[in-house]
Specification:
The complex is a heterodimer.
Chain A (H helix, E strand, L loop, with lengths): L4 H7 L9 E6 L5 E6 L3 E3 L3 E6 L3 H9 L2 E7 L6 E12 L7 E2 L2 E2 H8 L24 E6 L2 E4 L1
Antiparallel strand pairs in A: 1-2, 1-5, 3-4, 4-9, 5-6, 6-9, 6-10, 7-8
Chain B lengths: L5 H10 L1 E6 L5 E6 L3 E2 L4 E5 L2 H13 L2 E6 L3 H4 L2 E10 L2 E11 L15 H11 L8
Antiparallel strand pairs in B: 1-2, 1-5, 3-4, 4-7, 5-6, 6-7
The chains are: A alpha+beta, B alpha+beta.
Amino acid sequence: MKLPEEIVSLLKIKEINDTAVYLATSSLDGDINLMPSPYTDIYLDEYILIPDLFAQKTKINLNENRQGLISIVLPTSNKNVTIEGSCNIIQWGHPAKFRFYDLTAGDVLEHWGNWTGKENILDDDNLAKPEVFAQRGVIIIKAEKIIYN
Amino acid sequence: MTKLTPRQKNWLEGTGAHIGTASKNGNPTVIVVDKATVINESTVKFILSAKQVQLVEKNISENPRASLGPGGIGSIRAAYQFKGKASIVGNELFVEVNEIYSTKPGPEAGLRLDNLDYNDVLKFESSRWADDGPPR
């Protein structure tokens, strides 16, 4: 499903001051995990992309349960919005033709595999930026359900 | 027993949290509550709206595990994940924290903090952050 324009605008790559999101994933027996990320982008108004910066528990969960949920707070209304859908990690080593819905691993890694080439991640106080921006891959969530809480 | 540090307590109380729960089959749900009260060394209390109670009570009844991520700017500046056992009494949600992780992106992501000596956690925090909570 297409995301509303307000959410697309919030989550698309900007110069800086991106909206931070939490990505929730869970093991199949319900061990929930929340991963924060200040870095997001949108593709086709439907896919949310996040760089994988050592998201080890997220990867373990997604290896057995390919569901993800993005939680954000809208700055205009202070409302919480959650976006749920199928979720996967594309990593260096995936065959270029590996497909996740409308995306192939080759395209994902070419366009989002080096996040610092796409986004200015300046952070003078080093509050968000890792000491070394070592990206392992790209996490993708396909928007399938939106809930305004 | 897990003991929250003053910095962790101040961020949770100052910015509230994104609260994750999941069904027993691993279907996640997240709500956001913008205020919290730390009522003892390891338990955090949230006041929920009726809709929020409805969203999480079934999950908690079948799977009491919950995860907390600090809200607002705390999601970035207070890079912690708190995991614990959730219970609901009326419209009050209690989470007894028994695991604490660093969520700072990079090699320290996922580092478990609650099994370190308490003074080592304080040293870990003071070596990485200059604040003791959200801006007042």
